[in-house]
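Bit of a strange request maybe. I'm writing a small parser for structure token strings and I need a real example to test against, not something I typed by hand. Could someone generate the tokens for this chain?
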Amino acid sequence: MGEVGMNAAEVRALAQRVRDGADALDDIGWPADTAEDLAGSAIAATVATTGLEDRVADVAAAMRAWAEATSSATAGLQHADERHAGRLQAPR
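Reply from user aminoacidic:
Good idea to test on real output. This should exercise your parser:
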């Protein structure tokens, strides 16, 4: 049977990059102008961001949830490995 390995430091670093990405999404500045503010202009229809900010916030929240779950699972696997490494041996 094969061996499964995990580099906990790399997984934690990945989770942190995902958290950083979620923070970057939160920092996006959304246009404050509405179509009514730009009535008659050529770009009035392009500012329809209604609901977009909420959707992006949902994506950021999902990214944070993934990062938290990944970090928790990594910690659990690392703890189990450290605690039970001597008991788990490959069959002969």
